Amino acid sequence: MNEKMTERNDELEIDLQRLLNAVLNKAxxxxxxxxxxxxxxxxxxxxxxxxxxxxxxxxxxxxxxLSLGDASLSxxxxxISASRGLVQSYIVILNTRESLNDVIDYAGxxxxxxxxxxxxxxxxxxxxxxxxxxVTSDDPKEAEQIANAIAxxxxxxxxxxxxxxxxxxxxxxxxxxxxxxxxxTKNTLIGFMxxxxxxxxxxxxxxxxxxxxxxxGDLERSCKHPVLAAVPDMTAPSKGGYYYGYxxxxxxxxxxxxxxxxxxxxxxxxxxxYKLLRTxxxxxxxxxxxxxxxxxxxxxxxxGKTLSAVNLAYSISQLGKR
Length: 322
Fold this sequence. Notes:
The chain has 322 residues and is an alpha+beta fold.
């Protein structure tokens, strides 16, 4: 039971250093994908998203309109609190069908009640008795016309519905000089980050599910048996222009000889690798007398079984053993 649990725990282990190295090795891919996603997001925003313009008007809420000549009566703290509470009532009045229809008629825009309601956003400014009405449209002139129409219609509607209160225009609407949305910088950064995260995720998933053995470390992680030795690739080019190929003393097209891959004339690195393999095999035998056969196998043909068998046999024969 404990052995099974240990095996499961071993299977669930994730080498964070290996994943980090995999990402760093493909950093150029991550950078290219992130930049491409950023460019695509920018172009998509530029060509497919309609710019929106905002125009706003601000109102001051007063719950006492009593005055005596040019001198207004003093307003208490309770009056100010009541004025703040009236902000929500004024916003509700603004969003009624009758108020918005009056705004449509005054502004002269071709909009329905529901369309106009979706274009308007009203809220209190910093929890004060001042509230702001923002109109959003793809036409900056239309947004200005509707906002100024609200500034004209809303105070009149409020004075007829709620007695003893008033709403005064603090700031009228002006024509927007630039779109409020979309933000090209923000969308481009979002595209860049999405490309970055997606590419890193794909690299990590590919590394986690990759069972290809490329080095000794991959082999040690995939099985519990120790690696005795690693023989260099005897068919890869060397710095001197030679490469190790099957056959001995072959000549290349330029007349240079290619070194042997069998026997005493193999490269120093390959010779030392086979000697190391020979030594470790000898130490791994508990009873050398009972080990009469060494089997060499591989997954596919042409991977060097015969080559390894011959060179290992030659290395063992150097010690006078069979």
